[in-house]
Design brief:
The chain is an alpha/beta fold. Helices cover 41% and strands 15% of the residues. The chain is built from 15 helices and 17 strands. The strands form five sheets. Strands 4-10-9-8-7-5-6 form a seven-stranded mixed sheet, sandwiched between helices. A hairpin with a 2-residue loop joins β1 and β2. α2 packs antiparallel against α10, α3 crosses α10 and α11 runs parallel beside α15. The protein is globular and about 75 Å long. The termini are far apart.
Length: 404
């Protein structure tokens, strides 16, 4: 059973804050999750107890920091069942995708297959690299395996890149099966697991993808830290995006040679406190248990869909998707205000915080015909059914004032 929800909420200091003597309702976890005190304390221990650069010095503080950094790598690699040697710490998923896109030089001009629902960070780097081809969903906004196979046969891509979970609809893709189809056509695969890794167990080896990336801040870790991992041979192919201290060995003739993985892809001083915080975030989720948190989030997702579907003044795409994660985007169809204005009113009058706009998924929003006029409601394990009720009741209370 999931640890008592009130106890979990107590782990997140921001939920103790009040604005105008009223509590906060945070429903923007798809943008960034809240941070538990365990993660905050782990990061702060580095900042207050053993601040030093890593892998450079031989004094005690440097050695303590280096040990903590590599212990964090061990923890993260074990948590996602990845090879430690190719578990690379980067600034986030965006940087990781750019490292891959810029590092596969032989791909210049090749065809790359993407779902139309992708985040800009998983579109723009590929547009710089080659010719992007799209796969569109069926009427239910699902991407069927039959559709994937058909498009791969038509396009014959060199690489397939996709998000494990949509940041607009909350729909999970059958990633393992898609990667298997891609291998049949000789294509490499990149999976963005940013919206998945904090909600469910991610097993890199089982997915059998060539590259997997994610940002830590969506799974309770600090901002500015992420992971690039995958198959060792695929990671070895990458030409580093950045070279410098910590990634090279200077030869006697003044030239340099790249160090072995993962160092060759981690030039410069990393986000040490962020790495330590990321490892603690995995420890936090594992202590709660993926099975129990997953069951709760599934129930919360179902409740979120049903509750929002009963609000007549908005349009939701959830009934077409049946999201597997508690991420639902709505359009204020009967309101005389747009989603941005609705977000501001919910924030200022009710202390309810949701994201409005196109969520860096402009291509998908244009495909849906809504532009940037969406309000995204994204919950996590610290949210309650009462949070959902409060949101729905608040929207209904606005109808007499802002609906035509």
């Amino acid at each position: 059973m999931l640890r008592a929800l009130h106890a979990i909420r107590d782990d997140f200091p921001l939920l103790q804050r009040e604005i105008n003597q009223a509590p906060l309702t945070y429903l923007d976890s798809a943008a960034t999750s809240l941070k538990p005190r365990q993660v905050i304390e782990a990061s702060n221990r580095y900042l207050t107890k053993y601040t030093a650069n890593i892998h450079r010095g031989h004094h005690r503080l440097s050695e303590e920091a280096s040990d903590a950094f590599e212990e964090a790598r061990d923890k993260v690699a074990f948590a996602i069942n990845a090879d430690k040697q190719c578990t690379v710490f980067v600034g986030g998923a965006t940087e990781a995708i750019n490292i891959v896109a810029s590092g596969i030089e032989v791909f210049n001009g090749a065809k790359i297959l993407l779902p139309v629902s992708e985040h800009n960070s998983n579109i723009a780097p590929w547009m710089r690299l080659g010719e992007v081809e799209w796969i569109t969903p069926d009427e239910g906004l699902h991407f069927s395996l039959e559709n994937w196979r058909k498009r791969m046969d038509e396009v014959r891509p060199k690489l397939v890149a996709l998000s494990a979970v949509s940041n607009v609809t909350g729909l999970a893709q059958p990633v393992k099966e898609i990667c298997a189809i891609a291998r049949e056509f000789g294509a490499l695969t990149l999976v963005d697991a940013s919206q998945a890794v904090g909600h469910a167990k991610v097993d890199v080896s089982d997915l059998d993808c060539d590259y997997l990336v994610f940002s830590g801040h969506k799974m309770f870790a600090p901002t500015g830290i992420g992971v690039l991992t995958g198959k060792l041979e695929a990671i070895k192919q990458l030409r580093p995006l950045v070279v410098g201290g910590g990634a090279v060995r200077v030869k006697d003739d003044g030239s340099f040679a790249l160090l072995d993985l993962p160092a060759r892809l981690e030039a410069g001083t990393p986000n040490i406190s962020g790495v330590i915080g990321l490892a603690e975030a995995f420890s936090y989720v594992e202590a709660l248990g993926y099975d129990t948190t997953g069951a709760y989030l599934k129930d919360l997702s179902k409740y979120l869909v049903e509750a929002l579907s009963d609000v007549g003044s908005i349009e939701t795409y959830a009934d077409r998707v049946d999201p597997t994660h508690p991420i639902v985007s709505i359009c204020p169809k009967d309101f005389c205000i747009n989603a941005d204005e609705l977000s501001i009113i919910l924030s200022e009058e009710y202390n309810i915080f949701c994201r409005s706009g196109s969520f860096c998924a402009h291509n998908f929003c244009n495909y849906l015909g809504v532009g940037g006029n969406l309000l995204r409601v994204s919950a996590h394990i610290y949210n309650t059914f009462e949070d959902v009720d409060l949101l729905c009741d608040s929207i209904r209370s606005l109808e007499p004032h802002y609906c035509a």
